[in-house]
Amino acid sequence: MTFKEAIQQGIPAILPAPKPYESEINHAPKRKEILTEEEKKLALKNALRYFEPQHHATLLPEFKEELEKYGRIYMYRFRPDYKMYARDINEYPGNSLQAKAIMMMIQNNLDYAVAQHPHELITYGGNGAVFSNWAQYLLTMKYLSEMTDEQTLTMYSGHPMGLFPSHKNAPRVVVTNGMMIPNYSKPDDWEKFNALGVTQYGQMTAGSYMYIGPQGIVHGTTITVLNGFRKIGKEPKGNLFVTSGLGGMSGAQPKAGTIAGCITVCAEVNPKITKIRHEQGWIHEVIQDLDELVTRVKKAQENKEVVSIAYLGNVVDVWEKFDTENIHIDLGSDQTSLHNPWAGGYYPAGISFEDANEMMANQPELFKEKVQETLRLHAAAINKHTAKGTYFFDYGNAFLLEASRAGAVVMNPNPTLGREFKYPSYVQDIMGPMCFDYGFGPFRWVCASNNPEDLQKTDDIACQVLEEMIKTSPEEIQQQMKDNIQWIRGAQENKLVVGSQARILYADAEGRTNIAKAFNDAIKSGKIGPVVLGRDHHDVSGTDSPYRETSNIYDGSRFTADMAIQNVIGDSFRGATWVSIHNGGGVGWGEVINGGFGMLLDGTPEAEQRLKSMLFWDVNNGISRRSWARNEGAIFAIQRAMEAEPLLKVTLPNIVSDDLLM
Q1: Which residues are annotated as a binding site for NAD(+)?
Q2: Does residue 601 sit in helix, strand or coil?
Q3: Which one is predicted more confidently, 662 or 358?
Q4: CATH number of the domain enclosing 519
Q5: H or E segment at 319?
Q6: Which of 7, 99, 523, 623 is the Cys-Cys partner for 147 at CB 3.0 to 4.6 Å?
Q7: Residue by residue, what is the 3-state secondary structure of 106-143?
């Protein structure tokens, strides 16, 4: 059977042979047992409904074993035999070029080089899933191979509900993930309903098919680290950044530190993912002994090296050891998956990785106690360093939130609205006022030809556009423009591609539109193949997250989610190829609503019209909300947008004198 035939087949009529469990693959940890006996039967009925009745007797014991052994029904038997990676868009079967682009992006998210737990269909973050099981994958790909430009595929938390009649200007796919009734959005609710097979955690870009490997977060982390050093008035070179986490998104940290030009120490407890990041070149050295680590860091500080070091062990030990050895940490953070603290997102100190996984599955209450104990130790060690001058920021992974719930000393002794914690979110003091308020966020593209030459050409085009724009850009955004140009110039040199031929940079609405139009022109003239546009949901407009993306909103609206919902609705009728809306991405189930999009550029006039309409809205929706919250940079940015577009009319805030309120 050819690749195209396998895609078109969908769920096979004849059962494939069971597949062996491949221990060398990085697998998801066993999920805790949470279903009652009656609910387990329901989970099995839910799984078997994908298959003809004659197969139920064969599959039932197999699915039952998976549920008991792993806490989920993944349907390993149905993993495809073909290699999983983003192919040239022309290699996919189908009637719609837009549908082929989505197939390409789905496969990229499940590429072994990209996905954190590829056999469990999890891209990153420990639980950020593209699908819940392999039947959903097979059925979705079949639907996409059959779709025309007069249909839309509706995705219910990984389940392809079906193809519905629509029209050529409608999105080809509409994705929802984890959209729970609010009273059922607690962490255990996710465990239960995910085990039942009726919802999933799409993270930010996993369940919306827009993850491009660690590069996506490398750029954001690079900008964060650069601006973090600017904030404390230091050059990165020879100075120390300490953090933790080398999985999916967090694996970008050491690479970003190297690009920024500092010393990075990143702790990780998982030997497999540490080995992968080292082999990929994202970290320079791996050290397992704390005394050796101390000696190496002191040498790097003395010689003003630019080096990334992975410590294979718990980050709490690093913070405590560096305190006793008087190693000064300039910047500190954490990027473990604390949105998922009880299921592998954060590991307790003093327990081996293997024993912790065993405890997580079989003694979940004890595991939770050990995690919270570690969070208290973690925060206490950080507090010692910040007393010596370390600048610590929460990297939006719910570290401060979960530490506070564990009783750690992380609350602000003199709290104000929006400043309840002892330390700021990186969005509050770095990315929000410096980037998001001005409309700068993660614009990304993927060359659908999967040809590295096309990526080089798009890099060149983007750089030319930015260099032309900076000549007339206002002083307020000069630094952002310079950072972008520096990033693009060094993008190829830093070997950032993992999986698809993709690139990311931080651009405002004008930059995104100009770059996209230049790409579309290049496609029209035959210089490059089609290009897929997208972004991280971690952006100006895409996400309502009170402790991260909207943490620098101080008018009391940071707990509302109107912006993210409006963003997706607006994108859907302004030309997006697919749209997505998720609960839980980045900071935890019930803690955030985030939306995203994908758009195919094919060189047509229709694509140009769509990109101009949608990209303008996609950014300025968020700027207008930030402006209404009285954010100074956003007021500047939305006034500039209104000058450029006469049809844009946004309500501006009147500023009330604080003296009047005394």
Answers
A1: 125-126, 203, 268, 395, 586
A2: strand
A3: 358
A4: 3.40.1770.10
A5: helix 315-324
A6: 99
A7: HHHHHCCCCCCEHHHCEEECCCEECCCCHHHHHHHHHH
Q: Domain check: are 186 and 292 in the same one?
A: no
Helical packing angle, 478-491 and 215-231, nearest 10° = 140
Q: pTM of the predicted model, to two decimals? A: 0.90
What are the angstrom distances between the C-alpha of 72 and each of 44, 170, 205, 555, 620? 10, 34, 22, 42, 41
Query: 512 and 387: one domain?
Result: no
What residues are paired with 243 via a beta bridge? 266
pLDDT band at residue 73 under the 50/70/90 scheme? very high
Residue 532 in domain: yes
Average pLDDT rounded to a whole number, residues 432-448: 95
Helix axes 353-362, 364-386, angle to 10 degrees: 130
User: CA 175 → CA 45, 49, 636, distances in Å?
Assistant: 24, 21, 34
pLDDT of the residue at 252:
82
Total domain count, the chain = 3
Give the residue among 131, 145, 143 at the shortest CA–CA distance from 47.
131
Annotated binding site: 125-126, 203, 268, 395, 586
- Which pLDDT belongs to residue 54? 97
Give the pLDDT of residue 352: 95
| CA–CA distances in Å: residue 340 to residues 61, 99, 217, 396, 543 | 30, 32, 19, 13, 19
Model confidence at 339, in pLDDT bands (50, 70, 90)? confident
Is 248:128 a contact under the CB 8 Å cutoff?
yes
For the chain, the maximum distance between any two Cα atoms, rounded to a whole number of angstroms, is 77
| 207-223 confidence digits (pLDDT tens) | 999 999 878 788 888 88
Contacts of 36 (CB under 8 A, 6+ apart): none
Query: Whole domain around residue 26: which residue ranges?
Result: 3-141+148-196
